[in-house]
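RECORD TYPE: inverse folding
INPUT: structure tokens
STRUCTURE:
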């Protein structure tokens, strides 16, 4: 991943966190990484944000994009569109691992997606999809 993409992602995560906290959710974990899977290298995956919404644990996938691809054409579907079936299964597996490590947290869960599109140097369009998918 390029430095620019990493910076874009971290900036989007910070903006998403601010947005969710402004709507009453509380941060439980940020950029939680699972242990490496044997023979695969790296880490086992990452949960962008884990939040608490009352008696519910919310796993939030943050997706960021710029309004146009490097070739100048608009992206098809936007940031939220990139959370496909494989990514959803992976997030569900990571959520299960996280919950095993934190039995003190609520057992009711929800999966949200926050899709951000950069609209200016310091501005973002934020779309919050509550209960974006079920597993």
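DESIGNED SEQUENCE:
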């Amino acid at each position: 991943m390029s430095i620019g993409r990493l910076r874009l992602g971290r900036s989007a995560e910070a903006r998403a966190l601010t947005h969710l906290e402004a709507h009453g959710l509380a941060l439980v974990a940020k950029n939680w990484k699972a242990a490496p899977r044997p023979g695969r290298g790296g880490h086992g995956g990452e949960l962008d944000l884990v939040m608490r919404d009352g008696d519910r644990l919310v796993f939030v996938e943050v997706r960021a994009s710029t309004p146009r691809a490097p070739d100048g054409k608009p992206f098809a579907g936007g940031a939220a569109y990139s959370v496909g079936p494989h990514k959803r299964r992976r997030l569900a597996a990571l959520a299960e691992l996280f919950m095993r490590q934190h039995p003190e947290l609520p057992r009711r869960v929800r999966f949200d997606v926050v899709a951000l599109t950069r609209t200016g140097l310091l501005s973002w369009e934020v779309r919050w999809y509550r209960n974006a998918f079920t597993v």
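NOTES: Helices lie at 3-22, 85-101.
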